[in-house]
DNA sequence: AAATGCGCCAACCGCGTGCGC
DNA sequence: AGCGCACGCGGTTGGCGCATT
């Protein structure tokens, strides 16, 4: 009798891999629209797709979701990512939560392709007194941010809108990065204050 | 025109966590 | 308490397209 792992491996081998076809997208979108984006294993089995649940979930989250914003990143988004990355590190899902319509995968790719170099070159700029401050303090700020979010989510009184940066936030006087200096921590404080009711 | 290198993006993989039983 | 399942996350890889030689 074959071990469970062996049969799993055999099943995995027979599953489709690689790029999704338009037909597969259609099937997945139709199924999710009808049953909702959950139970990905059964989505994979019942939708007639020869894919694993994980693959279906990823495809939905990164491509098929109706609120996905495609196209190149604006300067404001770049700036926001740079700042959040300095704060949070490689916590892409947290960063993505602040960029409506952008996925963690997309942000991660964009960072690796474009922003990492930019960030490095910024690091090389002449001594920036608050950069050091950011490096030493950023984790505690990040932890504060994460902790607060966790608490809010746990208590159920989170107001998603307050956590989000509007896609047009450069026009939004309540949180205008363009008017915030790149050096101080003021923007972080403002950012955190936005979460308070 | 062909070969090679490089950048970018979509997708995969492994691991950790949360939850229900 | 322990187990299995489902899901989420971040790192990595594969492949395509464009630029350069």
Automatic annotation (TrEMBL):
<feature type="domain" description="HTH myb-type">
    <location>
        <begin position="12"/>
        <end position="64"/>
    </location>
</feature>
<dbReference type="GO" id="GO:0005634">
    <property type="term" value="C:nucleus"/>
</dbReference>
<keyword id="KW-0238">DNA-binding</keyword>
<dbReference type="InterPro" id="IPR015495">
    <property type="entry name" value="Myb_TF_plants"/>
</dbReference>
<comment type="function">
    <text>Transcription factor.</text>
</comment>
<keyword id="KW-0539">Nucleus</keyword>
<dbReference type="InterPro" id="IPR017930">
    <property type="entry name" value="Myb_dom"/>
</dbReference>
<dbReference type="InterPro" id="IPR001005">
    <property type="entry name" value="SANT/Myb"/>
</dbReference>
<feature type="domain" description="HTH myb-type">
    <location>
        <begin position="65"/>
        <end position="119"/>
    </location>
</feature>
<dbReference type="GO" id="GO:0003677">
    <property type="term" value="F:DNA binding"/>
</dbReference>
<feature type="domain" description="Myb-like">
    <location>
        <begin position="65"/>
        <end position="115"/>
    </location>
</feature>
<dbReference type="InterPro" id="IPR009057">
    <property type="entry name" value="Homeodomain-like_sf"/>
</dbReference>
<feature type="domain" description="Myb-like">
    <location>
        <begin position="12"/>
        <end position="64"/>
    </location>
</feature>
<protein>
    <recommendedName>
        <fullName>Transcription factor, Myb superfamily</fullName>
    </recommendedName>
</protein>
<dbReference type="Pfam" id="PF00249">
    <property type="entry name" value="Myb_DNA-binding"/>
</dbReference>
<keyword id="KW-0677">Repeat</keyword>
């Amino acid at each position: 009798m074959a071990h469970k792992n062996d049969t799993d491996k055999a099943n995995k081998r027979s599953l489709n891999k690689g790029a999704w076809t338009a037909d597969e997208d259609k099937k997945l979108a139709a199924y999710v629209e009808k049953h909702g984006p959950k139970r990905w294993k059964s989505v994979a089995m019942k939708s007639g797709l020869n894919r694993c649940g994980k693959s279906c979930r990823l495809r939905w989250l990164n491509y098929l979701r109706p609120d996905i914003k495609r196209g190149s990143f604006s300067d404001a988004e770049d700036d926001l990512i740079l700042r959040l990355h300095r704060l949070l590190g490689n916590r892409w899902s947290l960063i993505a939560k602040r960029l409506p319509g952008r996925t963690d995968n997309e942000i991660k790719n964009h960072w690796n392709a474009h922003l990492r170099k930019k960030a490095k070159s910024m690091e090389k700029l002449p001594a920036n007194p608050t950069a050091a401050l950011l490096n030493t303090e950023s984790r505690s700020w990040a932890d504060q941010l994460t902790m607060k979010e966790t608490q809010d989510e746990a208590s159920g009184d989170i107001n998603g809108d307050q956590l989000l940066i509007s896609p047009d936030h450069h026009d939004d006087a309540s949180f205008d990065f363009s008017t915030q200096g790149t050096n101080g921590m003021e923007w972080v404080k403002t950012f955190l204050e936005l979460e308070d009711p």
